Amino acid sequence: MRFSYKSKRDIVSVEFTGIYCAEYLAHPENITKTFSADIKTEKLVSLNELMSEEKRAFVKETVMDQFGVAEEDIYSDLLSEWALTRDGLKIILPRGEFLPMSDGIKEYTFTKKETDELLSEVEIKESEEEAQKVDAE
């Protein structure tokens, strides 16, 4: 198995991309969805579990500044679509969610070094039962 990110935990990220087309649309829409999981616990993980609140705020501010997203345009979790890649932490802004539809999907990737620093403080916690299950395998 190839892991997308190696740390104290083995995290794998999957990014699905596609095109949505409907009769009422003037043109097709590109779409994206991401999932990340801890291989050891076999559970999905969120950035809330991998990163301190302070570092999440830094990531959010960096992405907002990069793409000119205004605070009043954020009505859902700006950091909900993300993936750990061999290049680093990639944050994806789905088309039309925080910026005009005409801007398409926007992506920002933190370098591998920045990603290591962002993920250094928080470790995914597993129950004693889950730890024993992983050790038994």
Gyration radius over CA: 17 Å
* Beta strands, count: 7
What order do the strands of the largest sheet run in, or round the barrel if closed?
A: 1-2-3-4
Average pLDDT confidence is: 80
Give the termini separation.
16 Å
Order of H and E elements: EEEEHHEEEHH
Strand fraction equals 25-35%
What does the overall shape look like? globular
Question: Care to describe what's here?
Answer:
The chain has about 140 residues and is an alpha+beta fold. About 25% of the residues lie in helices and about 30% in strands. A 4-stranded antiparallel sheet has the order 1-2-3-4, with no helix packed on it. The protein has a 3-stranded antiparallel sheet with strand order 5-6-7, with helices on one face. The protein is globular and about 45 Å long. About 15% of the residues are buried. Mean pLDDT is about 80; it is low at about 125-130.
